[in-house]
Design brief:
single chain, 376 residues, alpha/beta, Rossmann fold, 2 domains, seven-stranded mixed sheet, three-stranded antiparallel sheet, 12 helices, 12 strands, elongated, disordered C terminus
Length: 376
């Protein structure tokens, strides 16, 4: 069983939205302040896409700036109840709450149409720069954030973990002597290193959560964020010692690498379809159109779905490799080298990939909104 002996003197907490800090670390902050430790809270967004619990606040949901301003005020009040004076929002970029949707398999995932400044859409390295600057200023001996799954899986929580881990690895290289410890919030059922808080800090946690009335429902002894799921105020908060692994540095590259096999598959499939239909002169153009249509559909879908062009560059590379290799093959070489439709397939498929890669980000939501305004 975890022992309550957490004794860090300079604690940096990194959270994604206002209310996360009170839900998951109010006991930690209250305990630290009571024993004279210093606390720095860094909140990455203002919770602009929060859903209001109170009916009289529902109108805020239609105005992200208003919701963000209201929740920022709630955060300020919550920190006043806990006695935390050192808190701020990340950087000058004003990252936005990404929101969340439930995917096809019931898992939390990112919305289909993200604003470019939504936290989960911004590069991990960019966000880590802001966290790193706070580390240099505050010089923590303990850093606390979500686990690598983002707790229950919120995309902003995952981004907060990855960005914090990246910043801490960088900061540890700079620090001489004892390195700051890294802790993640332990979810129910996970092992933990420390259990912090209880009946002594329950009233302070309750007061902090009452300040977040737009997001949290308060009862006499319990609170809830989702209907039907309640937690006691005196339930300890658990954290686990962790290692800020190197994976966040490589995640963007790993996620883009799927473009290479996809390009190889596109090149082979296009050549195969065109080769089969090309045996019948009446169907030669049909084969070309099907192959190019598949290429265009996949590449422009990737451009609208992903924020990075890296995957598309790799699709283009994979397509080029596939076409080059197939041109050496006896079966496909004839149509690629000599057939006019085959030549068009090679030229236009590569051109489609190039255009998709250099095309500005396709924001379908904005296009639809502009279309609706045009037809009003």
């Amino acid at each position: 069983m975890a022992k309550q002996s957490f004794a860090a003197n300079r604690i940096l907490l990194v959270h994604a939205h206002p209310d996360d800090e009170s839900l998951q670390s109010a006991h930690i902050m209250a305990d630290a302040i009571a024993r004279g430790a210093e606390v720095f809270l860094l909140t990455l967004t203002r919770g602009e896409r929060g859903k209001a619990k109170l009916e009289e606040l529902k109108s805020l949901e239609a105005n992200k700036a208003a919701m963000g301003a209201f929740r920022s005020g709630e955060l300020k009040n919550a920190m006043a109840t806990l006695g935390v004076t050192n808190f701020r929002f990340a950087g000058t970029r004003s990252y936005l709450d990404s929101g969340m949707r439930i995917g096809n398999f019931g898992q939390p995932t990112t919305p289909l149409n993200l604003d470019l400044l939504s936290l989960s859409a911004v590069s991990t390295a960019v966000i880590s720069d802001d966290i790193y600057e706070v580390m240099k200023e505050f010089k923590p001996d303990a850093v606390i954030t979500y686990n690598s799954q983002g707790g229950y899986g919120h995309p902003d929580h995952k981004k907060a973990h990855d960005s914090t881990a990246m910043a801490l690895r960088r900061y540890r290289k700079k620090v001489k002597g004892k390195k700051p410890m890294f802790y993640v919030i332990a979810e129910p059922g996970e092992r933990s290193t420390f259990a912090i808080g209880g009946s002594d800090t329950a009233e302070l946690k309750k007061a902090a959560l009452q300040a977040h009335a737009s997001q949290v429902t308060i009862h006499r002894d319990t609170y809830s964020v989702a209907d039907g799921i309640a937690f006691r105020f005196d339930h300890p908060e658990k954290i686990r010692a962790a290692s800020p692994n190197v994976l966040p540095w490589f995640k963007p590259a790993i996620r883009a690498l799927f473009g290479l096999p996809l390009g190889l598959l596109l090149g082979y499939a296009g050549a195969y379809v065109h080769g089969i239909l090309g045996n019948n002169p009446q169907h030669s153009q049909l084969g070309l159109y099907l192959a190019l249509g598949a290429t265009a559909s996949i590449t422009f879908y990737l451009r609208s779905w992903r924020n990075s062009r890296g995957a598309l560059y790799l699709v283009n590379l994979g397509l080029s490799i596939a076409i080059w290799w197939l041109s050496r093959n006896e079966t496909f070489g004839a149509f690629i080298d000599n057939d006019k439709y085959g030549n068009r397939y090679v030229m236009f498929s590569l051109l489609i990939c190039a255009v998709a890669a250099i095309f500005p980000k396709i924001e379908l939501a904005k296009w639809r909104a502009r279309s609706r305004r045009t037809h009003l």
